[in-house]
Amino acid sequence: MPRKLVVKRGKKLGAAPGTLVHIGDHAQFECTTSVVVYDQENLQIRENVTPQTCHELLALPGVKWLDMDGVHQAAAVKEMGELLGLHPLVLEDILNTDQRPKVEAYDGYLYIVLRMLRFDQTNHQIYSEQISLILGKDYVFSLQELPDDMFDGVRARLREGRRIRFMQADYLAYALLDAVVDHYFVLLEKLGDEIEALEDQLIIEPQPTTLRRIHHFKREMLMLRKAVWPLREVLNQLSRDDYPLISEETRLFMRDVQDHSVHVLDTIDTIRELLVSMLDLYMSSINNRMNEVMKVLTIIATVFMPLTFIAGVYGMNFEHMPELAWRWAYPAVWVVMTVVSAGLLLVFRRKGWL
Amino acid sequence: MPRKLVVKRGKKLGAAPGTLVHIGDHAQFECTTSVVVYDQENLQIRENVTPQTCHELLALPGVKWLDMDGVHQAAAVKEMGELLGLHPLVLEDILNTDQRPKVEAYDGYLYIVLRMLRFDQTNHQIYSEQISLILGKDYVFSLQELPDDMFDGVRARLREGRRIRFMQADYLAYALLDAVVDHYFVLLEKLGDEIEALEDQLIIEPQPTTLRRIHHFKREMLMLRKAVWPLREVLNQLSRDDYPLISEETRLFMRDVQDHSVHVLDTIDTIRELLVSMLDLYMSSINNRMNEVMKVLTIIATVFMPLTFIAGVYGMNFEHMPELAWRWAYPAVWVVMTVVSAGLLLVFRRKGWL
Amino acid sequence: MPRKLVVKRGKKLGAAPGTLVHIGDHAQFECTTSVVVYDQENLQIRENVTPQTCHELLALPGVKWLDMDGVHQAAAVKEMGELLGLHPLVLEDILNTDQRPKVEAYDGYLYIVLRMLRFDQTNHQIYSEQISLILGKDYVFSLQELPDDMFDGVRARLREGRRIRFMQADYLAYALLDAVVDHYFVLLEKLGDEIEALEDQLIIEPQPTTLRRIHHFKREMLMLRKAVWPLREVLNQLSRDDYPLISEETRLFMRDVQDHSVHVLDTIDTIRELLVSMLDLYMSSINNRMNEVMKVLTIIATVFMPLTFIAGVYGMNFEHMPELAWRWAYPAVWVVMTVVSAGLLLVFRRKGWL
Amino acid sequence: MPRKLVVKRGKKLGAAPGTLVHIGDHAQFECTTSVVVYDQENLQIRENVTPQTCHELLALPGVKWLDMDGVHQAAAVKEMGELLGLHPLVLEDILNTDQRPKVEAYDGYLYIVLRMLRFDQTNHQIYSEQISLILGKDYVFSLQELPDDMFDGVRARLREGRRIRFMQADYLAYALLDAVVDHYFVLLEKLGDEIEALEDQLIIEPQPTTLRRIHHFKREMLMLRKAVWPLREVLNQLSRDDYPLISEETRLFMRDVQDHSVHVLDTIDTIRELLVSMLDLYMSSINNRMNEVMKVLTIIATVFMPLTFIAGVYGMNFEHMPELAWRWAYPAVWVVMTVVSAGLLLVFRRKGWL
Amino acid sequence: MPRKLVVKRGKKLGAAPGTLVHIGDHAQFECTTSVVVYDQENLQIRENVTPQTCHELLALPGVKWLDMDGVHQAAAVKEMGELLGLHPLVLEDILNTDQRPKVEAYDGYLYIVLRMLRFDQTNHQIYSEQISLILGKDYVFSLQELPDDMFDGVRARLREGRRIRFMQADYLAYALLDAVVDHYFVLLEKLGDEIEALEDQLIIEPQPTTLRRIHHFKREMLMLRKAVWPLREVLNQLSRDDYPLISEETRLFMRDVQDHSVHVLDTIDTIRELLVSMLDLYMSSINNRMNEVMKVLTIIATVFMPLTFIAGVYGMNFEHMPELAWRWAYPAVWVVMTVVSAGLLLVFRRKGWL
């Protein structure tokens, strides 16, 4: 999932909606599905489940959480989709992994698209991955592009038999959404630290690379904002609208995540404005330095040009130059030159250039 | 359709609304109409249909798709318009090919205006073409300014007897809208690639032409945004409002296209902000380079001006210059000059200029 | 009506609302009124009508169009106002010719204010004129500040007995509004052509005057936007709100003009952003040129300062300078100087300055 | 009332709401109250009225206008407030003279806060003063910070027995609001004239002080906008909302003032954007001039450095310099120098620097 | 609570909502709670109250105000939370002290989050602290991160038996909100004074540190805006929405605080725009100075280079230079040099450079 400005959608051109081809980078691993079935008393975790087993597990009582890692094998996704009776457009959106975050209500289930962001500190880049959630009456079907430990916290809480075990599928969906938004804070914290380090460097000693790094961070913020902005709207809908699948109680929790997402956006905007201000600071300090350089040049030139001229005058070879023969001419010239340069330096001091 | 900032509307001045004159560039080809009549079982494709035949075909059962290439022959358009009973204002808007995208409900049909954009990679320019769609109860009448293969994908799907054959005229309209919006992604992908190449060039080695290219892309983005922005509103209306001509099911699909159009706009805005940041980067790097140049100049001048002055002093022809006769005066002057220049270079190193 | 940033309203200070004094430049011609009375069969055009005759003509059946050129004679306007029973505030607004575009519903009539814009190509300035329209049940009363041929197209269509003759007064009002908005396109086309010429000049060879012209156009766009922006709202109200004086059918036409006004605004905004981008381009290209100039200076100084220094050294008059007596010293100095300057030029080429 | 960025509110800290202390600059004059009682037939004007007399006058039939100059004597304001039965929060807001414009409905009266702006042409600064209006059923209580002739026009109209005498208290409130907004136009006209003069100066001959003046005007516009922006909302409410104290007829007039306030805001925004454009123009023209300066320097240096070098070469004292003895060497050197400088000037002309 | 761009939330990652861990800097003092119980007649103030005593005091009649200083001891907060029956999410938000201001209605109480800002004049930085308010039917529970004298004014008014003693718990909440917003004015006043001092310095004599200070203030304003912006919405809800816990009368007072918060935001925005304008002024004045410097350099170089060249010419050692032997050659050269330099200075004066 290397970051590109515009992701190719070309393959789909002319294809009917609902044609199932995975659009995105083709990963090199097998798509696997794990299923967790739980209620207050029981918890059953199954890894590497076949669609057939899925079908059986779905018939069990309790909340079912189907978690699929990898969506690059269209056939596997399609099979699961048919199992759950998903609309062709939903399957298409799951496979085209460059969707904007959105929530769509279908008959009997909600389809939620999110973007997971990871910051690779080696090359200072943000990678983006699509997370799809299907929230049904008694199940959640989550799909990630890459195997990841992002939902491990949720899994742990399920295992520990905490509150989440007493709640319905909508609360599980909330827990997954919350995990995603919490990761944004981790990301922003890392970025924020790097930007503050850059800011310190900028104030102490700006360098040409500083500029490129500011540009780089501005670019990252653009991509970040593009990913998070629609998420706010998604969470807003989930916490306000009357989706019957989400209980009144869970809606309170959704409101909390929505709050966090607004906080994320506020922070992104603050960072962006800070970067603009940093660029201004950089530009001005370059100008300041150039001013400094020019002053040195001007002072040197202004002091030495008249002196060199005077020396030049008495280097002329005219036969009739009475001064040349005077006894004290040479020391007098030194006096004149000293006076001239001292005078000029005084003028510069008056102007505040020294 | 060369790209102009403001398209001439002059001809219409003072004319009554409903005066049918084609406003736009007059193309050099014959306007032709093809008709596709289809239902689940049958499919009939007719090229180069006369209005008379159209009239007959319209009476057939099934969905009728009338596709007209070229709107520069006002008479042909008018004849078709009368056949379908279109309002004079609609015909006028079809002929004036610089409309903003919009949807207008008339008695018994919807009039949808879109703009098709094509990127000519030879001269790096975007060309814009007006697409008009009339969605009636059992027909779609589409008009393009130029013969084009844009709708070939839709035609292929009709021929293959896919889902589209089971749906009504509103789904056909959706398929055409979807084809247009999909082309925007192709366009953006090409532009995005060029802009990223430019960005790389900017970071490695900015050049005067870089600046012009940034300006050029900003201009393109302005034109693009102007074309796509109102489209979002059009698709929003089509997917929300209660146009009885669009079924509940098709509305779901319209929502999907609307989603894509928002995605297009997001991408345009991101590119625009990136271009602004690239310009800042360019400006700063020019300033950086000038700073570099100035430093070289200042160092050279500051080192050599005092030396030249010293040489000038001992080039004077005064009769009484005791130093001239000293035995070690010449080497001593060299020592002084070496010390002076070494001292100055040390100062520059301290200032971080070397 | 010379263009001023803020138009004087001083005279009115402290005056009661409804005090009728014309505020604006006092034109040097007589205010004249022409009346057109028409229905499907008959058309009667009367020029230079007295208020008395107006009174009689208003009693006739059919649609009455009263067109007054010049509003600088308050008494004439007042007399007409009383004839039609207009509110004192309306008369005041007609005379104070710096109103923002607006529509106001009064008992039995609508009061519409527009601004007509003309571009004087001699001094490249936009002039603004206030157009007032009173739409009554069976009459339209239009007032312009200057005699003008702007409504000639409408008059021609009335004479030719076209559709307008079959419609009511509201359609006449629409025709007049449409004529005004169409003139904006003429204006924008002229401006657009000039700006594109300026853009070409900017890319080929920017000049100090380019800058002033960009500023000039920015200023024009500001004035233009200020005039057109509220018009959109006016037309929006006329096409949506339930003014009983405007029939359902005419509302369709009003929607069309509103569309055009949005198009005008889009174009203004696009031009404004283009001007901003042009200014950036100009600034950068100046900086580029300065960079160029500085490089030439630095190269020259860096090459010749060391050479001049060397020449200066051997121009010194010390008695003990062994080199001076050497046989091949002079050619050797030439060799040294050639090597030094070649070396420096090589360094510059490496830096990419040559 | 000197203009400050943030007005001190320190005194109120920790105080209960409703603690009546005047916050603002303490003026040096006595607070005085004048009362006008009028109806269609009678008009009674009393200056320097005591609260006791006020009490008696308020019992009279007709409209009562109480106008208080100076609010720095908290006791006097409090006494009047109790006479009219005002809420403690209202009294507090009257005394804290840095309120934003607002309208608040209380039981039986409306409390309207405005800001009066005056432009002092001596030091080119805008001063801001708080105007409070209490509109009761049959009275208006107006409070200004300073004695002023702003409401003299209204007083004159009352004396002349014009329409205002036939209307109720709400119309009087309108007349006072109108007087305030009209003063904004006077202010803007003065500012507009100064800014246009500055613009002319900028184009003809920019100066360092120009920059400070642009900054100064930008600052003024910021303060102005801050004062006028909320006023628009206030007038909007007065012309739309269902305040029973304002009759349907007066609402029409209120709509008119609201229109004017929007016009004021439009003008402020236009001026602000113009100032931004002027700053750009200034920056660019400085850069242009620097470019000009650099070119002169570069041409001079480029022409004279080689010449000086040549002269330096033949000023060397080597014993074996064959050229020195040649008969035509001296004229030949002049020829060489002429050719070199002519060639360089030609190069500069080619580059367009001359 | 040192100011950071992004506050760490890392600890919570993967934790269930409702896990009570204090997130923020761990202060070094004991969390203490004071309780005030009051009605019209009685007032009881208790410091350092244990939860047990709290429980008893809550059972008393009258309004109870529980004020807790320090939230870093999760256990203490949790105990109080359980005493009052607060939702786990509320407790979590109280402990995570980087919430955005918000108001949330729960069963039987309102949860209000505010941010208190303090300006440390030693290091010119703004510190931010979270204030949580729980408004129940007859109690207010307030939590601050640090012991502070901010609410001392409210305490004093309670002691003095003023109006606040006659009101309910909602009015107490209002009094606390009002105290917080009033502190913003203190903060802004201090900042405003510093910024105006900086502005004066900028106009009189800009310095490199000026730039950093502008950047510093811009950063502070960003943080400030981020804290105050959502507060406006909170207060808006409290003054408009139908929270049954807030009486009609208190709502009037809430409207007043909301007014103040809008005023705070207006001021922040004005300051921000002023800072932008100051930066422009700074940049331009640097450019102006550089222009000044360049002019001096150019004048000096242009005057002395030709003179030095002339002197160099007559310093050449050709045997055949007839001028050298002329009687008046030396004075003639001086005349030529004077004329040349005078001519150049005249040119510069014409150009306005002198």
TrEMBL record, chains A, B, C, D, E:
Keyword Membrane: yes
Keywords assigned by UniProt, alphabetized: Cell membrane, Ion transport, Magnesium, Membrane, Transmembrane, Transmembrane helix, Transport
Membrane topology according to the record: Multi-pass membrane protein
UniProt KW Cell membrane keyword: yes
Record's subcellular location: Cell membrane; Membrane
Primary localisation category: membrane
Pfam families referenced in this protein's UniProt entry, alphabetically: CorA (PF01544)
Transmembrane segments: 296-316, 328-348
Similarity remark: Belongs to the CorA metal ion transporter (MIT) (TC 1.A.35) family.
NCBIfam families reported in the protein's UniProt record: corA (TIGR00383)
Function per UniProt: Mediates influx of magnesium ions.
Name of this chain's protein: Magnesium transport protein CorA
